[in-house]
Specification:
- By secondary structure, this protein is mostly helical.
- It has a domain of 132 residues.
- It is built from 8 helices and 2 strands.
- The radius of gyration is 19 Å and the shape is globular.
Amino acid sequence: MSFLKKFTSCCILLALSLTIIHYSNLDIKLQSLFFDHNAKQWLVSRDNLELKFWFYKFPKILIITYGVVMILWLAKLRIAMQNIEQQKQILFLILALILIPLVVATLKHYSPIYCPDRISEFGGGYPFISPLDIFDYDIFFNNTGKCSPAGHASGGFALLSLYFVVQSKILKQLSLSLALFMGVIMGGYQLAKGAHYLSDTIITLSVAYLICISLEKIILKRN
C-alpha cells in the first residue's frame, strides 16, 4: 500500500472513530465506569504510589532505556562505518521515539479539551469538550484544557516503529502486539484515574502511525 493510501486510510478511520465516540457520548459513558459518583473518587487514586510506579514510571523507564540503547548502537555503527542499512533502521526507531511524544505533547499543549477529572460531570468546574467540538472557533480559543491527545500513552505507541523494521511475519506480529499492549496499558491507567478519555488514546495511536509511515517514506524507503 502506498504512503498516500496509508495516510488517507488512517485519517478516515480516525474521523469515523471520533464521530462515533462524539455522537454516542462514549467518552463520558466509559469514564463513568471508572468514577464513583457517591464517593467522588476515581477507580485509581493519584496517591496510589505503587500503581503509579508500575503503570506510569516503570514503562517510561523501559522506553527511555530502549531509546538510550538505540542511540548507543547507532553511534557504534557510525564510528565503525558499518552497515548503512541498519543505521537507517536504528535512526528511524530513534526519530520515531522522539517525534511521536513530541508531536503529541505539542498538540496537547494547544488543546482546549479538559481532562475528565476537571469537568463538571465528575466534580470539576469545566465543560466537557469532545474532539469534534474543537472545530468551533469559540470553544477552541476560549478554553485551555491541555488534555488531548494522551501524552503518557505516546511512549508505548511509539514502539509501533519496530513493526516497520523487522522482517519476519512473526516478529512483525510480536512488535505490533508489544506496541499496542504498552500503549493500551499506559493509556488505560490514565483513563482509570480520570486523566484522559478513550478518544485521547485513539488520537495518540493515530499520530504514532502517521509519524511512522512518514518516517518510513523519508528514511527507510530512500536510497
